[in-house]
Design a protein that fits this description.
The chain has 774 residues and is mostly beta strands. The protein is built from 8 helices and 43 strands. Keywords: Signal.
Length: 774
Amino acid sequence: MKKSLSVIVSSAMAVTLFASVALGATGAKSSADFSDLNGLDAGTKAKFDAMISAGIFDGVSNGVFGLHDKMNRAQFAKVAALIFGLKVNSTLQVSSFSDVSSSDPANGYALPYIEALKAANLTDGFGQGTYNPAGEVTKEQLAAFLLRGLNKDAQAKGTTGVNDNTVSSWAKGYAALAIQLNLLSNQADGTFGGTQPATRDLLVTSSYAAKQQFVPGSIPSGQHSEIHAEDLKAYSLPGGSQAQVKSVLQEKTTDGWRVGTVVKLTNSSNSTIRVPDYELRVRTSDGTDYTLVPSASNARSILPQSDVTLSYMTDINVKSDVSLTDVLWIDVDTKVYPKQETLLADSPVGSIVWRGNDAVINDASLMGEWGATFSIPGVTSSLKYSATSLSKQFSGQSPTYIVQVKVQNSGSYAETIPDFTLSGKSNGQSFIGKRVEESPITLNAGEQKYIHFAVTTEASTQLNAFYVLTPESFLKQGQTTPLQYYTGRIGFGLPANGGTETSTVPSGGNYTFGTPMVFEQGNEFINPNLAVSLEELHVTNNEETGNKTGLAKFKLVNKGDKPIPVPALAADLTGKDGFTYTGSRQTLGTSDIAPGTGVVVSYGYTIPSTDQSDQYKLNVQGVLAGASQGQTGYKSTIASYTVSTQSDNDHNNVSLYPFKLNIKSWTLSQLTITTPSLSYSYKLNLDLDITRDPEVLVDNNFSKLKFELVDGSGSSLGSSSFPFSGTNRLVSGTQSLSFSNLTQNQVQNNVSIRVYESVTTPNGEMDRFITELK
C-alpha cells in the first residue's frame, strides 16, 4: 500500500457504510422488495431489514439490491455519516476536494456527507486534495474504518495481528480486532481476504454490527468539534476606516502592569487613506482610563481595499489587580480650550484580555479537546488546523514536546501559514514553544500539510494543555529593538493518555521484512516515488563493551524518473520494557538515489545487556531540524511497526544486505618473520561465495567485514577490515588475510577468528557479531 493509514482509513470510510443514490425513494422498504435478497437466512435478512428500513441502504435499481456489487467511497460516505450521527449540511454545493462536485451525476449526491466526514476529522481524503469518490475499498480498509469510528483505533494498534498473508502488514491488528468484535469474519478458506474489494453484503452486515456497538458521543469530541473564538467586531471611524481589536495584553511587571493592544484598521475604499490620529485608551472596571502610546513602527496610511495592524502600549504603575474592560477610540481637539474629547468607538474587551504567562483559559468554548479543529483568532483565513500527534523527546535533561499540527486550506486560493506558536501550560507555568519549520509555508487551494512545534519544559513539568499564541511587538520611540510578546485566546487539551507518543501514523502490527512501509499521509520527508523497506534487524551480544549491538538496514529504492535525495530519517527501537534506543545512522557518501536504483542505510543501536526483547517497536521518523549525517534534532514519527529480530547467521549463510556471504572453508596458519626484528603473523585463507542484490548501489561508506584474531581467553590479538567495494574489496573465491607484527607473547596455539559487520557512524564504529571461525 502506498497510502498512509489516514488515507486508508478515509478510503475505508468512503466505502464502508454505503447508502445508495436511491435513498430518497418514498415508502418504507424491506428485504422483500429486492429479488436478490430472497435467499438470505432469517438472521441475515433481519439485519438487512434494519438497515434498509432505517434508510441507510437501498437498492441499485428497481427491485435489485446489488448484493455482491462493489461499493464506492461516495456511497460509503453517506452510510458513515448516518451510522455515526454526523452533522450533515445538505445545502453545501462546493466541496473542499477537487474531484467532488455536486454536478457529478454519479456521485454528486454524496458531497454533503463527504464534507461531514472531513469536518469530523474521520477522513482527510485520498491525497493531494482529492477524495476519489468512485474508488473501491478493501476489506482490511473497511475494518480499519469501522474500528476508528468506534473509537478503537488505539486498541487495534495494540492488538496482536493476524498471521495471514492476505492481510497487509499495517492492517493485521485491525483485522484481528474486527474478528474479535464480530464486525467481520474470515472467509471459508480460513483467511481474512484483507486486500479483496468489499461488497455490499459484507458492508451491510459489518455496518449493522458497528451500529449496534456504537455509543453516541463515544467518538472523541475532538474529532467532531471546532474551537470557535468570537469574531472581532468592527467599529466605523471617521475618515473611512473600520477598527477591530485584535488582542489585549495585561501582564505583571515589577512596578505594576504592562498593557498592550493590537488593532486592525481596514480601508474598504478605492483610495489610500491616512491612519487617523486618534487616541487609544483602555478603561478599567473602576472607570479609570489610561492612554496608550502608539508603536514607532505603526503604519501611517492604508492602501485601498487593504488593512494594517497597529500596536499600542503603556505601563500602569498600580500594585493592586487591575481589570481591563474596554478599549476606547477618542478624538481629542486641542485647538480649543479647554480641549474637547469625543468618544468615537467603545469596544468591550474583558473576554479577550491575555495575562501573559499567568493567563488561564477558563471559557470551555475556547478550550477544545485534542484533535479539535481551530482557526487563528483575529486572522481572516481559510486555513484550518488540528493537532495530530505528540511525542516527548529530550535535549539534555530537559524534555521537549513535539506537537504535529495538520493544516488544511479549505479556500479557493493559495495562503501562507501566518506566524503563530503553541505554549505548553501547566499549573502556574507557561512554556512558549517555537515552530520548527522556519521558512514560510504556502498551501494551494485544497492542499494539506503538516507543521511542528517544539515546546521545551522543565524536567518535572506535567503539561495539561496547549495554548495557541500569536506573536506581537511594540517599538518604543527612539529605540531600534522592539519589545516582543504573545497573546492568545484558544487552546486544546492533551491526548487521553497524557501526551506521550500519541500519533495518527500507520501502525501495522508485525512487520514483514522487505515489504514497502506505509507512511503518514502528507509527510514531506518521503518522496512518493521512494519505496522504503526494512531488510534486516539483528541484535547481538558485544562482549568487548558488555552490552548488545543492534543493526537495522533500510533499503530505499527510487521508482521515479528523476534523482531523489536520501531523506533525513531517524529510526528508534523500543523494547518490551518500554526503553527507547535511538539509532545512529551510518555515515553516508551518497546524497542522491538515481532512478531505478536503491541504496542501503544502516542504523546502529547500543542496547543494554539486560534487555531481553526479541521484538521491538520501530518508529521511523522524519528529522525536523539540526540533522547532519545522522545527528538528529527534533523528530516526527511517520511510520510505526512491531519488528522481530532476525536470528544470528552461521558462517554458511551470512546476510549483510544487499550481500549474502558463504564462508565455505578457511585455514589459519602461523608465520615467523625474523627481519628486521623477531615478529610473528597469522595468515587466514578464505574460500568465499558472495552474491548481491543488483538493484542496490554500494559506496565506500558501506559496511565492512571485520576479522578479529582472539586467543583462548578472548583477548584480541589484532584485526583487519575489508570493504565490499573499492580497493581490497572482498570477492568470491579464495583470498588471504594477514594479522601481522605480533610479539612472541601474543602467539598462541588456541586462537580463533571472530567475524563482525562493521558500520561507521558519527558516534563511532558499530560492530555486529556474526560468527566465530575456530
